[in-house]
Design a protein that fits this description.
- It comes from Theileria equi strain WA.
- InterPro entries: DUF529.
- Keywords: Signal.
- The strands form four sheets. The chain has a six-stranded antiparallel β-sheet. Strands 11-12-15-16-17-18 form a six-stranded antiparallel β-sheet, covered by helices on one side. It has a three-stranded mixed β-sheet with strand order 1-4-5, with no helix packed on it.
- The radius of gyration is 18 Å and the shape is globular.
- The chain is mainly beta.
- The two termini are 26 Å apart.
- β2 and β3 form a beta hairpin.
- The protein has two domains: 144 residues, no CATH class; 90 residues, no CATH class.
- The protein contains two helices and 18 strands.
Length: 243
């Protein structure tokens, strides 16, 4: 359930924070094949969100994600003008097993959907089906792919830099930049250059950070395996204020 709670926190925070999507005129409707290595119309990041091997996808500017497939298998399709703003796919031995969708309507609140792969045999997609999952099913699916790191190194996550200790993904249509520490690296401090946003107490770490429009920073924090919570900062006239 921990991973699901993390993703639900993300949905809640971004739903509250997201400004209107960037106006890209008439965006082109596109289909994403999560088994393909060639997805030039998407921003992608390979990461380990809370130690679960994942691929994150976000449509590039000017594109709208209306359909998701895995080869010949349908994963999800747009209905009622609801599109995918962010997709997180969990992998086991490189094969997608479950997926979290952050959904963006034409207007109103963002929502989310959890999907799991069923009826796959021998690592093949022959006869496989993707189905919507409840919290328990989704949590079980994620637990099966999570890996325990051999060692852990604490570090400072500087959102003003690029670093191989974390993955970053630009959600262009939402003016958002995501930061996800790689497995084995625990972000015990979050800063931007000399400015420190947060420094954890023993056992605390930041498992993801989302910078929205360069004026809101949302941190998802975790204490050991027991507790998760969020912390939000808003920039007001050049000064960052914790909410």
């Amino acid at each position: 359930m921990q991973m699901l709670f993390t993703l639900l926190l993300l949905t809640s925070q971004l739903s509250r924070a997201l400004i209107a999507p960037v106006d890209s005129g008439n965006p082109e409707s596109v289909t994403l094949d999560i088994l393909s290595e060639s997805n030039s119309t998407f921003k992608t990041a390979k990461c380990e969100l809370d130690d679960a091997p994942s691929l994150m996808f976000a449509p590039a500017f000017g594109y709208r994600l209306d359909k998701i497939v895995a080869g010949d298998t349908l994963v999800w399709e747009c209905k009622n003008n609801v599109h995918v703003a962010l997709l997180n796919v969990h992998l086991k031995d490189g094969v997608p097993q479950s997926a979290f969708l952050l959904l963006e309507p034409e207007s109103g609140e963002h929502s989310s959907k959890n999907l799991v792969l069923k009826e796959a045999t021998g690592g093949s997609y022959a006869g496989a089906k993707w189905e919507e999952a409840n919290q328990q099913e989704f949590g079980d699916a994620v637990r099966k792919v999570r890996k325990t790191p051999h060692s852990v190194q604490s570090f400072t996550l500087d959102i003003g830099k690029n670093d191989n200790r974390w993955a970053s993904l630009e959600l262009q249509n939402m003016r958002t930049l995501a930061f996800i520490p790689h497995s084995g690296f625990h972000a015990t401090k979050v800063c931007r250059g000399e400015y420190s946003f947060w420094e954890g107490k023993p056992g605390e770490r930041c498992i993801s950070a989302f910078l929205v429009d360069n004026r809101e920073l949302h941190l998802i924090l975790k204490y050991n395996q027991e507790k998760e919570w969020t912390l939000t900062f808003t920039c007001n006239s050049g000064t960052w204020i914790s909410e």
